């Protein structure tokens, strides 16, 4: 029964030997058919290319320093959580990087393995270090929860046909790479994640709140941040909102989560 809950496609039970994982904190079962090492290898290669092709701020720039500061604090929170929950191997898999791209784009993203980019166009909406922590916590949470692997695994089931997974990944390298590129829309001047499903978004919201709280940021800032994003959406749809829906329902759910998260994880600096 656990396997059936883990795999959304019944046919996959007959054709593949699936790998079922548990999402940290939420405990949700998810399908992960693509080896993490392959996902990270592709992510690191593409991340380097994006950075080379973008106008990236110097590490000495004040905005870049702010992004790095927030990123490192959330990184420490993530590592603290994983180590405390007997997942030291997951800590070792991460190869963190934080970069700020100087483009007027309201967007941020985190690739598998901890590769993060924040665009300068997002900073006026974030307004503060804590507002930035809301965004970065949410995006990093997607990587920690392996949402990219989950979505790519579902695409593998659909796109690579009835081959055994390991054989498909070995024999269809170009198709596998294309799936990854499509997943992150790599190849244009902008790299963003494709829309996550509602379960993944809810997980990223919850994990993001927890990680930012453990990093010393007040999770109550999440509500006004998403309200500001909604206000921006009324005049211009930012890239961030094109893939991360912000609506009244989401804000209500966040508001309901905040008291519990704050009481359990937040320590005022």
Radius of gyration from CA coordinates: 18 Å
Tally of DSSP helical segments: 14
Q: What strand line-up does the widest sheet have?
A: 3-5-4
Low-confidence stretches: 1-18
Instruction: Give the mean pLDDT.
Output: 79
- What structural class do the secondary elements suggest? mainly alpha
Gap from first CA to last CA: 45 Å
- Estimated share of beta-strand residues: 5-15%
Secondary-structure element sequence?
HHEEHHHEEEHHHHHHHHH
Helix % is 55-70%
Shape: globular
How many beta-strand runs?
5
* Biggest pleated sheet: 3 strands, mixed
Question: What does it look like?
Answer:
The chain has helices at residues 2-6, 10-15, 36-53, 62-84, 88-93, 123-126, 129-144, 147-159, 165-171, 173-183, 198-214, 222-235, 239-243, 248-265; strands at residues 20-22, 29-31, 97-101, 108-111, 115-119. It is mainly alpha-helical and 269 residues long. The protein has a domain at 56-148 and 190-265. Helix 4 (62-84) crosses helix 7. The chain is globular, with a radius of gyration of 18 Å. The termini are far apart. The model is unreliable at 1-18 (pLDDT under 50).
Short overview:
The protein is mainly alpha-helical. The protein contains 14 helices and 5 strands.
């Amino acid at each position: 029964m656990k396997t059936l809950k883990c795999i959304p496609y019944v046919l996959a039970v007959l054709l593949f030997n699936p790998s079922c994982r548990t999402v940290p904190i939420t405990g949700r079962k998810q399908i992960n058919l693509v080896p993490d090492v392959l996902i990270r290898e592709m992510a690191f290669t593409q991340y380097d290319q994006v950075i080379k092709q973008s106008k990236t701020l110097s590490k000495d720039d004040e905005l870049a320093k702010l992004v790095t500061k927030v990123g490192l604090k959330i990184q420490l929170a993530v590592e603290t959580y994983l180590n405390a929950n007997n997942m030291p191997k997951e800590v070792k898999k991460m190869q963190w990087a934080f970069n700020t791209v100087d483009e007027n784009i309201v967007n941020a993203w985190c690739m598998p393995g901890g590769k993060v980019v924040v665009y300068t166009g997002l900073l006026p909406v974030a307004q503060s270090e804590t507002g930035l922590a809301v965004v970065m916590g949410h995006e990093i949470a997607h990587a920690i929860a392996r949402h990219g692997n989950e979505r790519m695994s579902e695409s593998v089931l659909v796109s690579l046909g009835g081959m055994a997974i390991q054989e498909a990944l070995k024999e269809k390298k170009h198709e596998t790479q294309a799936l990854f590129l499509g997943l992150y829309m790599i190849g244009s001047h902008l790299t963003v994640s494709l829309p996550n499903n509602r379960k993944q978004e809810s997980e990223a919201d919850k994990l993001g709140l927890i990680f930012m709280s453990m990093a010393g940021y007040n999770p109550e800032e999440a509500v006004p941040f998403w309200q500001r994003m909604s206000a921006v959406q009324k005049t211009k749809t930012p890239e961030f909102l094109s893939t991360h829906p912000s609506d009244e329902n989401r804000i209500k759910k966040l508001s309901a989560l905040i008291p519990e998260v704050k009481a359990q994880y937040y320590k005022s600096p």
